[in-house]
Amino acid sequence: MKLALVDICGEGDIKNREGDEYWKRPLDLLKNEKISFLDFASGARTVEDKVQGFHDALKSDADLIWLVRGGYSCIQAFDKIDWNLVRQTAKPLYGLSDFTHLAWMAVQQGVRCYYGQGLTHFEKTFPNSSDADFLFSFLRTGTLPPFIVQPLSTSATQTDLSSAQIIGGHLVVALLMLLQYPIDLHDRYLFLEYHPGGLGEGLRDIGYYLEHLMNILKRTKNLPKGFIFGQSMLPQLDETSIPWKEINTFCAERVSRLDLPVYEIDHFKTVIPFHL
User: Fold this and answer.
1) Can you give the pTM of this predicted structure?
2) Are residues 94 and 75 in the same domain?
3) Can you name the residues that pair with 96 across neighbouring β-strands?
């Protein structure tokens, strides 16, 4: 496949971030792995620049558009995006975190999306290049292995959800998008992960957002087929972090009141398919 690299979520020109590790070395990595790409991210300073780069990527001969980092800017670009062009070209989109905004709307436009990894800070996520073989394989071929999720509730068993409809992403963004742009979840699994913008948040913070989410789902009678929790992060002030499986156990206990199957998957090592 040929990739188009786009930067909508992050602020400022991505190539001006200090240190080769952030942008230059990831690009060199793609070249070393012989993965073909077009760079529409470098040089985009303003939201308008970034949206233009995204539109150019949609019009290009790329097979997959990779939103290369998370951030806080996607919602600023939201009303500037040509959604007719997104729908007409139907190029698959791939990203993480702030990308949840774009994926939520794109799936409703009939566009396939994938959730999982960013390109920036790649070496921190995958210190050993072999750890990213699953990702390189996907970027070359567009093919994913079976999507096997593990049970977190008594009503769930290890299951292959490769053909299932899935939507979601960052817990808070998914919650906000559900309020503004409702989507029928009855035939979908809701994938959720959480990572804060700072240090010191705990389980009760995630619990707070989950309570809001469950209230909305119950009030609107829009329950999903089940939940899938990824590898959430809760870094603490003492530089420790609450283990992600402990976080998922807590989340499963919270949503158990809805009596739905609950699963987990390490989305750091998996590409999550948001099927149509």
Assistant:
1) 0.95
2) yes
3) none
